[in-house]
Amino acid sequence: QVQLVESGGGLVQPGGSLRLSCAASGSIYRLNTMGWYRQAPGKGRELVATISSGGSTVYVDSVKGRFTISRDNAKKMVYLHMNSLKPEDTAVYYCKAAVTEYPGSYYNKDYWGQGTQVTVSS
Hints:
Blueprint: E1 2-7, E2 10-12, E3 18-26, E4 30-39, E5 46-51, E6 57-59, E7 67-72, E8 77-82, E9 91-100, E10 109-112, E11 116-120
Parallel strand pairs: 2-11
Antiparallel strand pairs: 1-3, 3-8, 4-5, 4-9, 5-6, 7-8, 9-10, 9-11
């Protein structure tokens, strides 16, 4: 019903930059809070950043000052601009969106992207 398609992952050197993109499509009346999560090998899934429909952002401490989350409501997209990447940032990154699917509904339904691999290595 709703699909999230991610792009922008790949291999980058330490100190480099990547921009992840997530495009939402399908039965979407309103996109509410969106976010990026990541899961490193052997680790649990970690919240990286969220952005509300009004643009308020929250970041996990480890990425503050390095990552920037943004969104384009007209395009139904959310981005994660990652600077000064470290090997510890290596993980599968997942896009999440809280979606209101039809008018008159006050319920959000969470959708997840398929995940995109980010590898930071020399």
